[in-house]
Design goal:
Layout (H helix, E strand, L loop, with lengths): L8 E4 L8 E8 L2 E8 L2 E8 L3 E3 L3 H14 L3 H11 L4 H18 L9 H11 L4 H17 L11 H20 L6 H17 L4 H15 L5 H26 L7 H14 L2 E4 L6 H11 L8 E4 L2 H7 L5 E7 L5 H19 L14 E3 L11
Parallel strand pairs: 6-7
Antiparallel strand pairs: 1-2, 1-5, 2-3, 3-4, 7-8, 8-9
Helix pairs in contact: 1-5, 2-3, 2-6, 3-4, 3-5, 3-6, 7-8, 7-9, 8-9, 10-13
């Protein structure tokens, strides 16, 4: 630890007077008596030697703040605080990621003593492959601390986008650490490709609508990456969409004049005309579907119930697994069950009239099933 002479100007790194400069007035072992001016008055406080630094050494103050966060396992605060002092350059983000890896190793290492944490951080950062540019980025942090002086201890004043960026960096750091290096996005790419394949073959949505959904998904899956990487992935999947769309349009030319999906479309139109709100590709889950039914209820004259299938049903149907239909009456109380059963029977009757086969056990506990068929939903755009 650094020793200070009587009368030396020092910076208090911790305690109630942290961030204040003062003058050493006495010493007893590892403790110093320091006179500081705080809140407009002069007070004398006792400070341990490790909690003092030469006056003006705001970098030491920043490191003490870092020690505090890690000692208390406040990982999120650590990220937010560092993000507040780092710029927007990509290398700054990389440096923050490396810091995260090092700090997590710290808090998970019970054997590490508090006094050795700073040295351990430097060693782990080097082991993580910090580049010269990373070190320059960290130097910018120290410079920022020196420039901001006491403000370095203030609560982070973060704009929403900065806070969001900090959380993205934390998520990416966790992904990097789990992968033991740069993360692989193979699973995400496979998921996007599968979703795109279903979207193209489903027959729902125009090209522009499918493309907009695709771009949103790609940006979401790669949100932790740099803008250039995201743009590259978007371009790749847009090309995949164009090829898939052209293939689907060509295949549609060879379909029979009237497909099962054509008959299903006609049956749903009949059901709507009878006051049964009939929706296809309604949301992604059962709850989504019922929300869509409720929203469409006002558009159907005399609506007394609904029937639908959602996107997960479509995903199975396009691969030849058949289709499941959810149903229910709008009636409340004792009448709900009887009305719902009546609705289900009418749905099955209308589908049969349009030559669409169904299977149902006659209870509310099971959805209506349309056995496997060739999914051929036309697009007319």
């Amino acid at each position: 630890m650094e020793e200070f002479e009587i009368g030396a100007k020092v910076l208090v790194l911790w305690g109630a007077n942290r961030g204040n400069e003062g003058t050493v007035r006495g010493r007893s072992g590892a403790r110093y008596s320091v006179e500081v001016e705080a809140s407009g008055r002069v007070v004398t406080t006792t400070v341990r030697d490790k909690d003092l630094a030469p006056a003006g050494n705001w970098a030491a103050l920043g490191r003490a703040k870092l020690d505090h966060f890690i000692a208390r396992r406040e990982r999120a605060e650590l990220f937010v605080w560092w993000a507040n002092h780092l710029g927007d350059a990509p290398k700054d983000a990389a440096a923050l990621i490396e810091l995260a890896r090092a700090s997590r190793a710290w808090v998970e290492s019970q054997a590490a003593s508090r006094s050795s944490r700073r040295d351990q951080w430097h060693a782990r950062l080097a082991a993580a492959g910090a580049t010269a540019e990373d070190k320059v980025a960290f130097e910018r942090v120290w410079q920022a601390l020196e420039a901001e002086a006491n403000d370095a201890l203030a609560p982070p004043r973060l704009e929403p986008e900065v806070r969001e960026a900090a959380h993205r960096l934390m998520e990416r750091a966790q992904r990097v650490e789990r992968a033991g290096g740069e993360p692989s996005y193979d699973r995400e790419r496979e998921h996007i490709a599968n979703t795109l394949d279903v979207s193209v073959r489903s027959g729902y949505g125009t090209f522009d609508e499918v493309r907009a959904q695709l771009v949103e998904q790609v940006r979401g899956e790669f949100r932790l990456e740099e803008a250039e990487t995201i743009a590259t992935e978007v371009t790749h999947f847009e090309a995949l969409l164009e090829r898939g769309w052209a293939t689907q349009q060509q295949a549609q030319q060879g379909w029979p004049e009237r497909t099962t999906n054509d008959r299903l479309d006609a049956a749903f139109e009949t059901l709507n005309a009878r006051g049964i709100v009939a929706l296809q590709d309604a949301g992604y889950t059962m709850s989504d579907g019922w929300e869509d039914i409720a929203a469409a209820r006002g558009d159907i004259r005399g609506a007394w119930g609904g029937v639908f299938f959602h996107r997960q049903d479509v995903e199975r149907a396009v691969d030849g697994a058949g289709l499941m239909l959810a149903f229910g009456a709008f009636a409340d109380g004792p009448a709900h069950e009887a009305e719902s059963l009546r609705l289900a029977r009418e749905v099955c009757e209308v589908l049969a009239q349009h030559e669409v086969a169904t299977e149902w056990d006659g209870t509310l506990g099971k959805r209506i099933s349309i056995p496997p068929f060739a999914w051929q939903k036309r697009r007319y755009d």
